[in-house]
Amino acid sequence: MIYPWQKDSWQRLFHGWESKPNAWLFYGRQGVGKAAFVMEYAKALLCEQPLEGSYFPCLQCHSCHLFSQGSHPDFYQISPDEDSELNLIKIESIREVLAKVQTSSHLGGWKVVLIMPAEKMNMQASNALLKVLEEPPSKTIFLLVSHSKDKLLSTIVSRCRQFALSMPNEKEALEYLSTQPNFDENTYFHLAFNSGVPFFSHNFPLELYQEFLKVMLEPRLLSCLDFAQHYDSEIKTLDYFFDWVYKWLADIILSQQGYGLKFNRTLSSCIEKKLKNKYNTRDLFALLTLVKQQARHKNHPLNTKLQIENIMLEYLSLSIG
């Protein structure tokens, strides 16, 4: 299955159907539907009779049935090791699959190897894959899917045919989401907050985020410290926090420069009234840079609560009125 906004991308893909590379790199923002698109392509590659004109899988042949059941002998998927603390793809996973694709295809067609997300390969795994891409096995296609292709080895990227998968526009995203069973009034917030990405976590800690907004609108020393304590007791990762602060600061800067808010649209009038002249834009940019730098080290053993306090107190100190 592909999503409605991916129809043009599918047409671009099958225009080069006869000249298949040994390796593809499909990339784009997380949450735009890359996995579904690439799985459909993998199924089509293995299909015995792809539909004429569109090259969609027929869904009727033996190969399609095996794929749908998750038991196709010529399809191999490599994902991060669940036992890995950093959620990485290790060399053992790569070697295991590479040993299998050196043999002939079980059904006489293509062998397809899906690696997703490819940027999760550690250095040893990346080097092992690179060696195979330099001398690929016969009748084998590697499908790499990446949310951040800049994190891949440049030598791997150079050996892949690159294919960008774009986001839907707001209308396309809302039309699709409105047909889903979990569509509600919060969907509009989530879509804006995630910059138009249609697939987002429905486990978003909305109450904690609302507490964050309240603190950021009227920051006080005690409320900042209380929030850090509450966040640390509820969530053990800093992913949400750094994302929230970054988007909050970005919205204030946009408001100060006369633009509409990008993420917290429902707070436009409130931010305009309370915060527009409360901070120096240069200071906000400096804090934004600090947040981006610290986010790169979010898995640092430094106490989560302490990291939150540092950012919150830095924000508190910026007020000029």
H-E string: HEHHEHEHEHEHHHHHHHH
Number of strand segments: 5
Output the CATH topology of the largest domain: Rossmann fold
Low-confidence stretches: none
The coarse silhouette is elongated
How would you describe this protein?
There is one protein chain. The chain has 2 domains: 163 residues, 3-Layer(aba) Sandwich (Rossmann fold); 112 residues. The protein is elongated, with a radius of gyration of 23 Å. It has a 5-stranded parallel β-sheet with strand order 2-3-4-1-5, with helices on both faces. With 321 residues, it is of the alpha/beta class. β3, α5 and β4 form a beta-alpha-beta unit. Helix content is 47%, strand content 8%. It starts with 6 loop residues before the first helix and ends in a 5-residue tail after the last helix. The model has no long low-confidence stretch (mean pLDDT 91). α4 runs parallel beside α5, α9 packs antiparallel against α10 and α11 packs antiparallel against α13.
Which labels suit this protein?
about 325 residues; alpha/beta; Rossmann fold; 2 domains; 14 helices; 5 strands
What can be said about this structure in brief?
The protein is α/β, with parallel strands linked by helices and 321 residues long. The protein contains 14 helices and five strands. The protein folds into two domains: 4-166, Rossmann fold (3-Layer(aba) Sandwich); 205-316.
Please give the structural blueprint.
Elements (H helix, E strand, L loop, with lengths): L6 H9 L7 E5 L6 H13 L15 H7 L6 E4 L12 H11 L9 E5 L7 H12 L5 E7 L7 H5 L2 E4 L5 H8 L8 H8 L12 H12 L3 H14 L4 H18 L11 H7 L6 H15 L8 H13 L5
